[in-house]
Task: structure prediction
Amino acid sequence: MQKILVAEDDILLATLHEITLSEAGFDVLVCRDGQQALEAMDAFDPDLLITDFFMPRMNGGELIKAT
Result:
């Protein structure tokens, strides 16, 4: 099963991504900010990262640069 990590601080959008992608057959992990997503990368080892840009602690651009 392919894994997708979603970095999204908006609870409604995060839930929408999680439900939609899970129903499509993906293993989904949702993180509430870029720092949490970065910390989860090694353990979860996602095939795809979907990120919001404007998030607390670490924004999406910083997250992409750090990966």
Notes: The chain has one domain: 3-66. The domain at 3-66 is CATH 3.40.50.2300 (Rossmann fold).
